[in-house]
What we know:
The chain is of the alpha/beta class. The protein has one domain (56-388, 463-471): TIM Barrel. It contains 14 helices and 19 strands. The chain has helices at 80-89, 107-118, 144-149, 176-186, 200-212, 221-224, 227-244, 256-267, 278-282, 305-316, 332-335, 354-366, 370-385, 467-471, and strands at residues 2-7, 10-13, 16-18, 21-25, 28-33, 41-46, 51-54, 56-58, 92-101, 125-132, 154-158, 192-196, 248-250, 272-277, 322-324, 402-412, 430-440, 443-447, 450-451. It has an eight-stranded parallel beta sheet with strand order 8-9-10-11-12-13-14-15. Strands 3-2-7-16-17-18-19 form a seven-stranded mixed beta sheet, with helices on one face. It starts with a strand and ends with a helix. 56% of the residues are buried. The structure holds zinc ion. Zinc ion binds at residues 60, 62, 326.
Amino acid sequence: MLDLLIRGGDVVTPQGVGPWDVAIEGERIVALGLPEHGLEAGRVIDATGKIVVPGGIEPHTHLAHFISMQPEENLHTLGPEEDTRGMVFGGTTTHVDFCFVRPGTDVQQVIETRAARWKGNSYADYSFHVALQGPLPLKVFDQIPEAIQAGFPSFKVFTVEVLPPHPKRHPYRLDFGRIQLAMEKITPHGGIMVVHAEDHDIVQFMYEKFREEKQTDGWLLPLVHNKLSEKLAFRRTIQLAAHTGAGVYFVHTSAREGVDAVAEARAAGFPIYAETLHHYACFTAEDYKSPRGFCYHTYPSLKYPEDQAALWNGLVRDGISTTATDEFPTSLELKLRGQDLENVTGGNLGAEARMGIVYSEGVVKRRMSLERFADVTATNAARILGLYPRKGVIAPGSDADIAIIDPGIKKTLVREDFHVSDYSPWEGWTIQGWPITTIVRGRVVVENRRLVGDRRDGKLVARKISPEVLRRPAC
Length: 475
Ligand SMILES: [Zn+2]
């Protein structure tokens, strides 16, 4: 007999949406059956009137992460034990965080340190991008093939020092020479570049200029992390990728200029992918001026209505492949402590809300199909980052990672709807449809908005990217 059956829901698969029963044995989905097949199981979840989707894949989080905006205070974001509780409440079953390779460390060592921090402390499954930062010795790049072999095929680089030059911080930026070297090392071994692309000169010049003019308001951020900077950096990175043959995944695309650059590269057949953040799609630079405005700030920055329109167009149709959070969970006090250009705290707190917000704003308001919803919340991230087909899809043989959405829930979100920190930027937002039940590898972790899982449920998942994804735009 089967272990678990999800019965009566509208099940979203790559073949379409149908009234299938989802049959689960152990950690895997074993069959999709029609109701008249009369499948039986030890346990049945009645999903009548609900939507059954692949568990969300959150491709971009910074948990237990040093807070560089306040470098002298040695503060960290909340850890996986706190943040992944929110993720599973919100239907997300896997996340990809980062380990940081800086001068003086090596790749294997930073992976092991992060994996040890997560072990036994995550409700959701997890993996890590390998971030390459600062003036790294060239021999570090020789460790790339081994990391890919070990199941860590995505390499994050910053083209920019994101934060202002004061106070002094450890470097983030990798120079374009080293980015080229990284691309050359990953490409023959099946890795992908994950790029935070902004123009270093423009961003740092704008910080300097505003400092000299004694203009310090935080709402000037979109003029520092500006649209031209995104245009220049996306296009320069794409040219480097075309030259080296590398696939690129652009994190947190924020401007129309970024979307356009990616669309052009994809039309020319290059394996270029873009992520955006649900709060970039829902808030604009005007929101910085509201009382809790810096709640919505993530680097680069919020932009303008025309950028929002381009992001939604890319999400609903084509051009933006994934939604992410750039999760950076802190208390409200810490998030709002800095209010000016030089000390505002970046990062978002919204991994818990991601699936529900994209459902409400995409499917309900903008006629995104349910198949596309599954793509931009789970399937595409799984494909691009090498979790597919084990994850990101409801299909026989795949892990039984599933979210059940109740489309009948209609409400204004309040503080009590969230389970990570003492605030959510999404308090006050009106939604229609919200995840109610989440299953991670066959274990029910959240049931009818009640936590029943435990933080030992999550496991490290080895990744391997399909050559198809690295050859041309595959999703
Ligand atoms: Zn980030």
